[in-house]
Design a protein that fits this description.
Strand content: 15-25%
Strand order of the largest sheet: 2-1-5-4-3
CATH superfamily of the largest domain: Histidine kinase-like ATPase, C-terminal domain
Shape: elongated
Number of domains: 3
Helix content: 40-55%
CATH class of the largest domain: Alpha Beta
Largest sheet: 5 strands, antiparallel
Radius of gyration: 31 Å
CATH topology of the largest domain: Heat Shock Protein 90
Number of strands: 12
């Protein structure tokens, strides 16, 4: 009986052990699957414990925060992100109250980064007491913000362009009459001094006519061709290096693997010339201008999605864009300089838009960056 009982018990334990082993294997497989899913998410995931130490983070969080996982794990979140006071405050509130919080378009400054990463943040507490954890979810808010900015910018540019063209045509007609009258007057005047006055009128009329032509922008469709973006950039760099002394320093930070864009090379040269010249004027010819090129993926330009684009950045270390003109910087006749016409940036934006691109900017004292996005068309 004992042997039978032992045998019976053994026979009963065998399937139980097998079931437990199988269950553990299933749990392990499920855990691995969940880890793989979390790792593949485009949403950044950070797990913070009750002492504010980082316990887990995925690849998306690494990219958004500019932190490597090996550096971040096991360290206090406040030490890793000393400039992210709002994020730290959300985590602490969630730990203290046990409630969830959210913040839209929260600027985060990764260590060593020149620009803030704008994220939509949600913090959710898990567990209670000393075992409490906070799950931080980070979503890149920049695509949505860029889309909104582009829609507003497109509407503003269309309105300002229409107004500028109407104004230009209204100015051009009396200018023609003024110039013709001055020429007729010159035929009847005697004496070189009076003729000199007429020449002043003619020169000023021609200057205003040229200003109107610039305001009206290019005529006709762009002559589109395959262009290596570094060609017009370096052409502009040579032109401005010849205009300024060696006190103006250009720093090239180019990605040599960039694909070609389909655009009008001459119009790109003019657009880049206006942007780089604007940067040179901002630093008064004695600063540093960094020219940077990179690939951009999955971008929206004027409301249209593009899987691939070329990004060109013109960065200067000048005083920055005045607050009074930040919202209208690309409008015609808007300028922060006493001797400026306010047409350079407006024309640059118009020329880039003719290539299906867009110009954006960010500015603070000591760092202003104008970014040109040009789509790469599939062939």
């Amino acid at each position: 009986m004992r042997r039978d009982g032992v045998a019976t018990l053994s026979n009963q334990r065998a399937p139980i052990a097998s079931a437990v082993t199988e269950e553990r294997t299933v749990d392990l497989d499920a855990a691995i699957a969940r880890a793989d899913v979390v790792e593949s998410l485009r949403t950044g995931i950070v797990l913070v414990d009750a002492l504010e130490y980082v316990r887990e983070m995925n690849a998306a969080a690494e990219q958004l925060l500019g932190l490597g996982r090996r550096v971040a794990l096991g360290r206090p979140l406040p030490d890793l992100l000393p400039h992210a006071a709002q994020l730290i405050d959300l985590v602490r509130r969630a730990l203290a109250s046990g409630g969830g919080y959210a913040h839209r378009a929260l600027p985060l400054y990764p260590p060593g980064a020149m620009h803030a990463a704008t994220c939509d943040v949600e913090v959710t507490p898990l567990g209670a007491g000393a075992a409490r954890r906070v799950l931080v979810e980070l979503r890149d808010a920049e695509p949505g913000l860029r889309f909104g900015r582009e829609l507003v910018l497109s509407a503003q540019l269309d309105a300002s362009r229409s107004l500028a063209r109407q104004l230009g045509h209204e100015i051009r007609n009396p200018l023609g009459g003024l110039r013709g009258a001055a020429q007729l007057l010159a035929r009847r005047l005697e004496g070189p001094e009076l003729h000199e006055f007429v020449q002043v009128i003619l020169r000023e009329a021609d200057r205003l006519a040229a200003l109107v032509d610039r305001m009206l922008g290019p005529a006709g469709a762009p002559r589109r061709q395959s262009v290596n973006i570094h060609d017009p950039i370096q052409h502009v760099e040579r032109l401005l290096a010849a205009e300024h002394s060696s006190a103006l320093v250009f720093v090239e930070d180019f990605d040599p693997s960039l694909p070609a864009v389909t655009a009008d090379r001459d119009e790109l040269v003019q657009a880049m010339l206006n942007l780089v010249r604007n940067a040179a004027q901002a630093v008064e010819g004695t600063g540093r201008i960094r020219l940077r090129t990179r690939v951009a993926t999955q971008v929206s330009i004027a409301g249209r999605p593009w899987p691939l684009a070329v990004r060109v950045e013109v960065e200067d270390d000048g005083p920055g864009v005045p607050d009074a003109i930040r919202e209208t910087l690309f409008y015609p006749l808007v300028t922060g300089r006493r001797d400026g016409t306010g047409l350079g940036l407006a024309l640059a934006q118009d020329l880039v838009r003719r290539q299906q691109g867009v110009i954006e900017y960010s500015s603070r004292p000591g760092c202003t960056v104008f970014t040109v996005l040009l789509p790469v068309e599939r062939t």
